[in-house]
Every structure is written in C-alpha cells, then in structure tokens.
Amino acid sequence: MLLWKRGPFAFSALALCILAANLALNLLPAAGIAVAQMLLPLLECGLLYASLAADRGDRPRIRHLLAVAGASPGALAAVVIAGSLVFGAEALVALQVGGIDMLSPAANASVSATALIVTYAAGMLVSLPVTFVPFAALFDGAPLREAFAQSFAAFGRNPAPLVVYGALSFVLLLLGLLTNGLGLLLALPWSAAASYAAWKDIFDLR
Asked: For residues 193 and 191, what is the distance between their CA atoms, to the nearest angstrom?
C-alpha cells in the first residue's frame, strides 16, 4: 500500500491499459488469444516496473508499461513461459470443470460462476511457484532456468505466507469481477506491489 500511495492514479492507469489490451485481444479469433498469452504477461510487468520506481523514490508512470521492451530475450521468454503455465492450467481446469474453451471465448454461450471461481483459483495456485520469475529475470538478470529455480525455491521456503497472499489476491480478483472490472483498477496494482514487496523481503534485498 505504501508503494501504491506514491502513484495511485498512475498505477490505476497502467491497470486500465492492461485490461483494455486484454479485452481487445480477446475480441479477435483464436490467434488473438495466442497473442494475448505472449503480450499480456509482458504488459503486466509494467506494474512491477512501476513498483520498482516507487520504491526508489520515483513516481510510477504510464511509460513503465513499455519498460519491459528493454529486457533481454531470455528475460522476456521467462515471463511469457511463466504466464503461459498459469493460462494453461486455467484452460485445462475450465475445460474439465465447466466445458469452457478458453482458446475460443465466443464459443462459450454461458459460463457458470462456479466454473469461473474454480478456474481462477487453479490459476492462482499455479502462479504462486512462479511469482518471482519476472523479478529474477528482469531485475536480477537471471537466466531463464535460474529464474524459475529461484522462484520455486522461494516458494518452497515460504509456502504458507504465499498461499495467504494468493488467497487475498484471489479475493481482490473476485471483487474486481463483481464490480464489472472497475475493482481491478485497484486489485491489479495492489497485487503487483505486494509481490514486489514479497520479493524484496524473501530475497533480503535493500
């Protein structure tokens, strides 16, 4: 919350850009979904760069949305792979639980609330072990394999608090969805800033 307070409007503007990109890409055919899974995890890193800037005494800015463009190909690959693992888990659970084809949103005439909750809960659980992959790859310059190894090790040392973090993030996500997405303008920055704070704490960074 301390990080978010240093630029609440900029954080919300970044979240709005990410949500708008997600909506636009999901309106496209199957190719749009594939592009979204590569582009959206990278755009979401804008919130991490904004958190880093706030922590260094600077202000979060819209330009942080494109800061990831300066990262190495290996770092970009690590972020995309981590995001794809989460999406893959959600797609599999959605298909098994509710018969939902997440690769073709237009084909899903009706989606039950239960199926959505179970799907997003599964995605949240899968995301926890890879939470710190973007930080290791983008901020520490760790190679792809090392970025995943560091993130898995960090989760292995702190499973209970990270599960609590995941549960709280999940509640924020549901509140965001219940408010027709408006709540996500706060939920996304809060979750990103919290993960940044957790990364500094767990890896003992000053």
From this structure: 6
